[in-house]
TrEMBL record:
Molecular functions per Gene Ontology: transmembrane transporter activity
InterPro entries (UniProt xref): ExbD
Entry's family note: Belongs to the ExbD/TolR family.
Keyword Protein transport in annotation: yes
PANTHER family: BIOPOLYMER TRANSPORT PROTEIN EXBD-RELATED, EXBD MEMBRANE COMPONENT OF PMF-DRIVEN MACROMOLECULE IMPORT SYSTEM
Domain of life: Bacteria
Membrane-spanning ranges: 29-49
Gene Ontology biological process terms from the UniProt entry: protein transport
Topology term for the membrane: Single-pass membrane protein; Single-pass type II membrane protein
Protein name listed in UniProt: Biopolymer transporter ExbD
Organism of origin: Ilyomonas limi
């Protein structure tokens, strides 16, 4: 099948007088329709890929904050080179190091929630203090927030690391 086809028609009038041939062209637009549908499909597909996906973040109400026992907390300091330093309670000198693997940060969080559940009877009492350092990446923060969802930790706080913690990290 041709995309354009020329039709010839011979027109003759009176005898002896011959006129030129009248040529008419007919363009087949089927490929253009196919291209149009492909473009529509492409643009619909790309707009569905570009939809915004955001994590829901619940913020506390303004006012006096609740008091949490220190033994219910674990601090995660997000460091450079995909390292996480952590300590339970309020003793940063007992800081240990792990990574973002499931055997790393996830197991640390699960161990802390089990300790809190054994001591206080409710694993949801666990409070995780997430402290990104200036050297960590945005990906590290997102990975840590993902771990909060995976381990079903409902109480966590994003906060700055204090000077004492930053000095201990640099050692």
């Amino acid at each position: 099948m041709f995309m354009a086809e020329v039709q010839t028609a011979v027109l003759t009038g009176k005898r002896g007088i011959t006129r030129g041939k009248k040529l008419s062209t007919r363009v087949d637009l089927t490929p253009m329709v196919d291209l149009g549908f492909l473009l529509i499909t492409f643009f619909i597909f790309t707009t569905t890929l570009n939809e915004q996906k955001a994590m829901r973040l619940n913020l506390p109400q303004d006012g006096a904050g609740g008091v949490t026992a220190v033994s219910k907390t674990i601090s995660l300091l997000l460091c450079e080179d995909n390292k996480v330093k952590y300590y339970a309670g309020d003793n940063p000198t007992s800081m240990q190091e792990t990574n973002y693997s499931p055997a790393g940060i996830r197991s640390v969080i699960l161990q802390q929630t089990q300790k809190v559940a054994a001591q206080f009877g409710d694993r949801n009492e666990t409070v995780v203090l997430i402290k990104p350092t200036p050297d960590c990446t945005y990906e590290n923060i997102v990975n840590t927030l993902d771990e909060m969802t995976i381990t079903d930790v409902r109480r966590y706080i994003l906060m700055d690391a204090n000077k004492e913690e930053l000095n201990l990290i640099k050692r």
